[in-house]
């Protein structure tokens, strides 16, 4: 299912969605968490990104696993690089899934009109902290995943 799109390998196509959506979700989530004035402007965008981004990362990850099974990538050195790249992608998927869940809960608990939390203040601050930490981790892992993949493709050029 994640092997090809219109005859082309799906992985180089799918990674672009993940590379764009992950930073957008991070920015929207952090803006919503730390700047009450931005909440009414970014709330629905953040919710849509929280639903779409894990799907994009999952599609990129699964298409990469299909792509790595190609006969062209069977050398032991390349397989070791692919394994490192897949490790970064696995971490990114779980982090982005966690971030998506946190921002969805935050969108429910922290109302944009009142800038106040529906739940206890401690939950509000915990959600802010989780959003920032998971957002920074997502940025790190999207960079490391992309960097390791690009080095496999472009080293030697």
Account of the 3D structure:
The chain is mostly helical. It has one domain. 78% of the residues lie in helices and 3% in strands. The longest helix is centred in the middle third of the chain and has 34 residues. The mean pLDDT is 89.
Task: Please supply descriptive tags for the structure shown above.
2 strands, elongated, two-stranded antiparallel sheet, mainly alpha, about 80% helix
Write the layout of secondary structure elements.
Blueprint: E1 4-5, E2 8-9, H1 10-34, H2 39-68, H3 76-109, H4 121-154
Antiparallel strand pairs: 1-2
Helix pairs in contact: 1-2, 1-3, 1-4, 2-3, 3-4
Write a brief structural summary.
It comes from Dactylosporangium aurantiacum. The protein has 157 residues and is mostly helical. It contains 4 helices and 2 strands.
């Amino acid at each position: 299912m994640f092997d090809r799109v219109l005859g082309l390998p799906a992985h180089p196509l799918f990674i672009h969605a993940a590379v764009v959506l992950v930073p957008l979700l991070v920015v929207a989530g952090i803006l919503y968490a730390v700047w009450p004035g931005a909440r009414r402007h970014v709330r629905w965008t953040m919710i849509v990104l929280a639903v779409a981004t894990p799907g994009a990362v999952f599609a990129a990850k699964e298409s990469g696993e299909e792509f790595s099974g190609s006969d062209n990538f069977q050398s032991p050195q390349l397989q070791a690089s692919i394994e490192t790249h897949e490790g970064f992608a696995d971490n990114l998927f779980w982090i982005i899934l966690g971030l998506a869940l946190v921002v969805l809960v935050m969108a429910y608990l922290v109302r944009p009109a009142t800038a106040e939390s529906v739940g206890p203040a401690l939950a509000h601050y915990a959600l802010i902290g989780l959003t920032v930490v998971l957002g920074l981790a997502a940025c790190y892992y999207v960079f490391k995943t992309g960097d390791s993949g690009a080095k496999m493709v472009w080293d030697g050029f």
